[in-house]
Request: fold
Amino acid sequence: MDTADTALIFGTTSLVISVISLSWSVWSKFIYPKPRMRVGCRIREYGKYAPEPKVTFVEVTITNLGPNDVTVRFVRARFGRKTKVEKPGAEVGLIPIDLKEPNKKIHYVFDGGLPATLDVGKSHTAFFGLHKRWFSEWDIASIGFEDTFGRYHKAKSSDLKKVRKYVLLHGE
Reply:
């Protein structure tokens, strides 16, 4: 094998790598782009300035930052290391409260306005009561939404730490 054969092998190999790289770039950017999502978790008080007693919820919000629409199926939580209910790392679907019909019986994780299709720039919010067992027994380590492709979009851990602290002090 002389120099010309070696150059031909290296040239062919680099051409194959370039074609694979180009096809991957086209696929990931134009054919199947993943939407960017932002998830937030916080404590929200309703009726704070009204004469009625205020109502406090855990609010989990997801916002679609684009580039395409996405359908959010349900809210999912992941157990931490200190869980007393399930093995660490296991996951559970959470049941949000439907604020439009608060007296409605909610039986499954697809209530509370879910599944919801989010256009670019739109958001969806799920509301939950202040349940101490989320953090005392379940030790929820992350909370977020799952989309139709099975991708898990979770809230920042700093947001969840603030919620954990509030719920453990003021929860039911």
The chain has a mean pLDDT of 82. The chain has two domains: 1-32, 34-170.
